[in-house]
Amino acid sequence: MGVGLPELMIILVVGVIVFGPDRLPEFARQAGRFVRQMRNLAQSAQSQLRDELGPEYADLKLADLDPRQAIRKHILEAMDDDEIAEPPPAHEVLALDERPPYDHEAT
Predict the structure, then answer these.
(1) Using an 8 Å Cβ cutoff, are 61 and 46 in contact?
(2) What is the pTM of this model?
(3) Structural domain includes residue 90
(4) For residues 104 and 102, what is the distance between their CA atoms, to the nearest angstrom?
């Protein structure tokens, strides 16, 4: 999900229009410092979390804490497990015209 050349050119043109060519380099430096500080903050939080959780979580990444990533990971693992699972025994498979058993007392 990187920024390509067309996106970078659009950002540059908008920056020149909004800030002017004189102030644009200073804003670019400030944006670079801000991104660097945020990256350092995230790395610091990640290492602090690893230290507090202990050696079992030494390979922990912040992306692992994203609920979407966790759900995707577990769904893919379940799908892999299903592919490995053995088919049901022949006596459990119904024929095309056979109806499943019905328990009158359970309903």
Answers:
(1) yes
(2) 0.46
(3) no
(4) 6
